[in-house]
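Retry 2 of 3 after timeout on previous attempt. Resubmitting structure tokens to design endpoint.
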């Protein structure tokens, strides 16, 4: 007899009890493993929902820039921005909006390509963030947009 059998006999465990005890430990390990796998799956699904939800919103915002009404709404931001105001002398209001819309759609596509290359996803997120900073005006941009009776 081996040492484990002697210990089981002293505890009053039969071979059947020992086998059941071993199965219970394996079952707990399997349950813990399944729980971790479930948590990983939920995390992956949540990440995908957030990523592609963001892509849909950014792409929609980019597509809206190709409409005339959005071009008119965004023009005060462009004209008061220290980084973008130089476009007023080169492009029409509609063309300025089209350029920004193209950048936003490109950013959305790059974020989708994160599954291929995380660097592309980072570049897409960065491009959208930089686009937001470029449109920030110094002063006066909100006064043009707010209609006070």
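Retry 2 succeeded. Sequence:
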């Amino acid at each position: 007899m081996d040492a484990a059998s002697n210990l089981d006999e002293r505890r009053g465990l039969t071979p059947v009890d020992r086998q059941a005890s071993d199965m219970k430990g394996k079952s707990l390990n399997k349950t813990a493993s399944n729980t971790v796998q479930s948590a990983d799956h939920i995390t992956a699904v949540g990440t995908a929902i957030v990523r592609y939800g963001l892509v849909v919103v950014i792409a929609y915002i980019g597509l809206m820039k190709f409409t005339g009404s959005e071009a008119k709404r965004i023009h005060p931001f462009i004209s008061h921005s220290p980084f973008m105001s130089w476009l007023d002398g080169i492009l029409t209001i509609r063309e300025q909006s089209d350029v920004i819309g193209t950048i936003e759609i490109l950013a959305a596509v790059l974020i989708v390509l994160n599954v291929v290359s995380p660097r592309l996803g980072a570049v897409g997120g960065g491009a959208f963030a930089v686009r937001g900073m470029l449109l920030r005006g110094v002063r006066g941009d909100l006064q043009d947009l707010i209609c006070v009776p």
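Attempt log closed. The first helix runs from residue 3 to 11.
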